[in-house]
Amino acid sequence: MDSFAVKIFKNKIFNENKLLKFGFVRKGKKFVYTGDILDNQFSLTVVISGEKEMETKLVDIISGELYTLHLVETAAGSFVGHVKEAYENALILIAQACCSDTYFAYAQANRLTDLIKSKYHDSPEFLWEKSPGFGVFRNPQSEKWYALISRVDRSKVDKKKSGEVEILNIKLDKDEIQDLLKLDGFYPAYHMNKKSWITIILDGSIPDEKIMELIEKSHGFSEGRKKTENAKSEWLVPCNPKYFDVDAAFKKSGEIIWKQSSNIKTGDIVYLYVGAPLSAVRYKCEASEVDIPYDYKDENLTINKVMKIRLLKKYDKDFLSFKILKDYGVNAIRGPRSIPRILSDFINKKG
After folding, report:
1. Considering the chain, what percentage of its residues have pLDDT values greater than 70?
2. Which phi and psi (to 5°) does residue 267 adopt?
3. What stretch of H or E contains 211?
4. How many CB atoms lie within 10 A of CB 197?
5. pLDDT per residue over 158-211, tens digit each?
6. For residues 233 and 226, what is the distance between their CA atoms, to the nearest angstrom?
7. For 189, which DSSP code?
8. Across the chain, what does the average pLDDT equal?
9. Cα–Cα distance for residue pair 137/128, rounded to 1 Å
10. Can you say whether the dihedral through the CA atoms of 58, 85, 240, 235 is positive or negative?
11. What angle, rounded to 10 degrees, do the helices at 107-120 and 208-221 form?
12. How many whole angstroms separate alpha carbon 54 and alpha carbon 297?
């Protein structure tokens, strides 16, 4: 994978169904796509093998010769610049249409993340700049942690083995912890209270279903609302401008309906994140009514219930850009998610 592609496809994996829908053709264990770029001057071939492997080939249609200058970072000139831009835009389009984002380095950690998001609508928070592979799952109602995935050398938990591995820390009953420690793949909690937490190796040796059963128990220890019953939870909710003009909707009315897919309560704060090309939080809203039955389905969207959200404030596009969100532990917004405490403090301090 060339340097441009590495940048674009970092933390992404290819999805077979999405590849086929985009126009890739299955050839054995590979997927192949061919299309024209730069006003049909070049033919681009993209070959995908596995979840992360990709090769590209760019051919001058008139001469039939292989073109490579677009891969040379020092290559200059107006024409080369146009080719580079067209090539990168084509890869960005493929990445957006054919990939799923990954939070962690290895497959089981990412599968469990998807299961947690599906069940609890919680995304991992990356709170430590010096430990970018450490992701915390927090119950937004109580702000308590119920899971932590981290990437360490295996010797940290098992002195007989070494090599990079991802581990999961969860909270369980102390008697169950003692029973689990007798089994392979379970260890005394790494860097956490060993009386109430346990570490699980995420190398595929323990089935996802078994781990999710334990995560559910850990989540149970985190339940309960914040210290005061009237305290408001804060949520980040994505908005795709390709499908809905939220700005026009708020100009018509200060209160609109919105798809609800999380445990959002009346009075909770909802920050609407508008996707590319804006890629920023633009609206602060309050959930004025929740759990309203709704029946809608099309090829892009299914809605079973909605909520009413009331506009409180509109932000400048630079106030909460995606770059700023990443600085405060938010690396992706693919669905409703709770706001990390440090981000909440930043927003409430700045405006």
Report:
1. 97
2. 95, -15
3. helix 208-221
4. 20
5. 999 999 999 999 999 999 999 999 999 999 999 999 999 999 999 999 999 999
6. 8
7. P
8. 89
9. 14
10. positive
11. 50
12. 34
The length of the chain, given as a count of residues: 351
Q: Which helix (H) or strand (E) holds 343?
A: helix 341-350
Q: How far apart are the C-alpha atoms of 107 and 165, rounded to whole Å?
A: 11
* pLDDT per residue as tens digits for the range 294-334: 888 877 677 888 999 999 999 998 899 998 888 877 877 87
C-alpha pair distances (Å), 319 with each of 212, 281, 314, 325 = 37, 8, 10, 10
The two three-digit tokens of residue 77, written as one number: 């000139």
Cα 53–Cα 59–Cα 61 angle in degrees, nearest 5 = 145
Report residue 165 CA to chain centroid gap.
20
Return phi, psi of residue 249, to 5°.
-65, -40
Q: Is the peptide bond before 277 cis (omega within 30 degrees of 0)?
A: yes
Helix (H) or strand (E) holding 256: strand 255-259
pLDDT of 227 strictly over 60: no
15-54 residue pLDDT tens: 888 899 999 999 999 999 999 999 999 999 999 998 778 9
Split at pLDDT 50, 70, 90, the class of 351 is low
What is the value of pTM for the model shown? Answer: 0.50
Q: Nearest CA to 96 among 334, 257, 306?
A: 334
Query: Quick one: tokens of 168?
Result: 């999961």
Strand, helix or coil at 110? helix
Query: How is residue 193 written in tokens?
Result: 């209270």
